[in-house]
Specification:
The chain has 554 residues and is mainly alpha-helical. Helices cover 71% and strands 1% of the residues. The chain has a two-stranded antiparallel sheet. The protein is elongated.
Length: 554
């Protein structure tokens, strides 16, 4: 019985929702008919004549004030809508109407799936959104003390957002701590230091840990945050390497004695890989590029399974600096695989190598006359592939947008990844003669191949819709985030802009020509109400004059 009652209520509710969704015109005409029937007892005609007499007594100053106030209010709404759209990428009025008003008006899906399927669908959608918006550690991230902080000292701007630094803190706790840290005083101090938000407190904790023991993670923190030059950071990382290798050898011998020893060995492995990678980056920044390449190759051979650090992207950048294009091609052949996650570095480096073969002799005029050769077609297809993966990169490579310091984390296919790639690879594109010219002539052709990037892709999955929101969290506020596909202005911004302009013009005309505008307003209103008066006259001629008396008798 209870189920039958619930089913009846659901059917009744669905009928009401259906009636309000599809039969609103019928409800509207019924209300108009009732108002017409009740016009005598409600004294509608007398009220209308009273209102018209009141309006006739108003002076033009009232209309000037009315239109001016309307213009001011619509202007304020326009300013707020524009600010909200620039900050959040959507219209405030539209968001409120969709989030709050639509459920009240019954704008929900009538086909209610089963609970199990609904839960499964929600889980799938959440997994999809998480995978699309996964944030990755920037393999070429800069040093906080020697690079990010120097930028802050010079410009007074913070290049890193709180969200980005919080993600780095989570990474440090994952890579540099384990469950047995409380058994060692120095590691226990560093476990708290990685959770500390205040930079000075972290540095003080690192010094405190070093007073107790030679702690590799303490040296890492000082090299990253306290060292003001790359030379100082390299010295600290060398000390960290000495301490880290000792811990790694000890834990390697004990890793099979239990789960705790295995976790400690995993932590020591992460610490050692991180130190060696940062030492290679220091060598690259100090001009010892061949030494950096050797260190990276040795590290990849020693720890081939630790692909999470994406050391091959550091290696690609160093090889491009050496102009060792054959070695770059060999690295790409290994990592540009269908089963591996792509990146802007892989896609655009592959495009650069193919462009290098034809860019020095490429001419758009000659290509339009004779057509593209096979090599040129391959280069153009590689550029289109790269642009489809990350459409934000070309504007930075072509210097159509200004670069900023790359964040410590990037979103693949997003603006943050484009900044990180262009920051390090722009010089390599400039070094190849004609490569930027070829990119300039061909990159926009990608968008003709993918007219609806959010619905379908060509060589990759459809472009994720969450990149703008995630990039706004990763990138500083002074940077204008690149948005793809470019969003059109919401309807309510255009509507409020038109309303503000129209009412301002009415206020100005009413102030300058009060009599003429009064005549125009009366003519406009009479024209507007002419169809309604015509319909009412026809209704009165059709319906009997004693209809109201008959209805009262009933």
């Amino acid at each position: 019985m209870a189920e039958a009652g619930t089913g009846f209520l659901e059917q009744l509710k669905s009928c009401v929702v259906w009636s309000w969704t599809y039969l609103w015109t019928l409800w509207f005409f019924i209300m108009l008919f009732l108002v017409y029937i009740l016009r005598v007892p409600l004294k509608i005609n007398d009220n209308l004549s009273t209102v018209s007499m009141f309006l006739n007594t108003l002076t033009p100053k009232f209309y000037v004030a009315l239109t001016g106030t309307s213009s001011l209010i619509s202007g304020l709404i326009l300013i707020f809508e524009w600010w909200y759209f620039r900050k959040y990428g959507t219209s405030f009025i539209e968001q409120v109407s969709v989030s709050h008003l639509r459920p009240l008006l019954g704008g929900v899906d009538n086909s209610a799936p089963s609970a199990a399927s609904a839960a499964g669908g929600d889980a799938d959608s959440s997994r999809q959104s998480v995978s699309e918006c996964k944030v990755w550690r920037n393999p070429l991230n800069l040093f906080r003390g020697a690079e990010y902080n120097r930028y802050t000292w010079v410009t007074g701007r913070e290049p890193l957002t709180y969200y980005d630094m919080n993600l780095s803190a989570q990474d440090h706790q994952t890579f540099f701590t384990c469950d047995t840290d409380h058994l060692r005083p120095a590691d226990a101090i560093m476990q708290k230091a990685w959770r500390e938000r205040n930079p000075q407190a972290r540095i003080s904790a690192a010094h405190e840990a070093l007073e107790l023991n030679e702690c590799a993670t303490a040296y890492i923190l000082l090299a990253e945050e306290e060292a003001t030059t790359i030379v100082e950071a390299e010295k600290l990382f060398k000390q960290a390497l000495k301490a880290g290798e000792g811990c790694y050898r000890r834990s390697q011998q004990l890793q099979h004695h239990g789960a705790q020893y295995e976790a400690q060995h995993r932590r020591d492995t992460n610490v050692l890989v991180y130190i060696k990678r940062r030492l290679a980056m220091c060598a690259r920044k100090l001009g010892r590029t061949r030494e950096a390449v050797k260190m990276m190759r040795d590290l990849m051979k020693e720890f081939p399974l630790l692909s999470m650090f994406n050391i091959h992207e550091n290696l690609l950048e160093a090889l491009l600096e050496l102009q060792a294009y054959a070695d770059v091609q060999a690295v790409l052949a290994k990592y540009d695989d269908i089963s591996l996650p792509k990146s802007a570095t892989i896609c655009y480096t592959a495009a650069l190598l193919k462009a290098r073969a034809v860019s020095d002799k490429f001419s758009p005029e000659a290509a339009s006359r004779r057509g593209l050769s096979t090599a040129e077609m391959n280069a153009v297809e590689a550029i289109h592939r790269a642009v489809e993966f990350n459409p934000h990169v070309p504007k930075y490579l072509l210097e159509m947008k200004s670069l900023i310091l790359p964040p410590e984390h990037i979103l693949k296919r997003g603006d943050s990844e484009a900044i990180a790639y262009a920051f390090f690879h722009l010089q390599h594109w400039k070094r190849v003669e004609g490569a930027l010219n070829l990119l300039h002539c061909t990159w926009e052709g990608t968008f003709r191949m993918i007219p609806y990037p959010l619905e379908k892709g060509h060589l990759f999955y459809p472009y994720p819709i969450c990149t703008e929101t995630a990039d706004r969290e990763l990138l500083p506020s002074f940077h204008e985030v690149s948005v793809y596909p470019k969003k059109e202005l919401p309807f309510f911004i255009l509507f409020t802009a038109g309303l503000c302009s129209f009412t301002a013009m009415l206020a100005l005309l009413t102030h300058q020509f009060p009599e003429l505008m009064g005549v125009f307003a009366k003519a406009f209103l009479s024209t507007l109400f002419a169809p309604l008066n015509f319909v009412m006259e026809k209704v009165e001629s059709i319906l009997p004059s004693s209809l109201w008396h008959q209805l009262t008798r009933i």
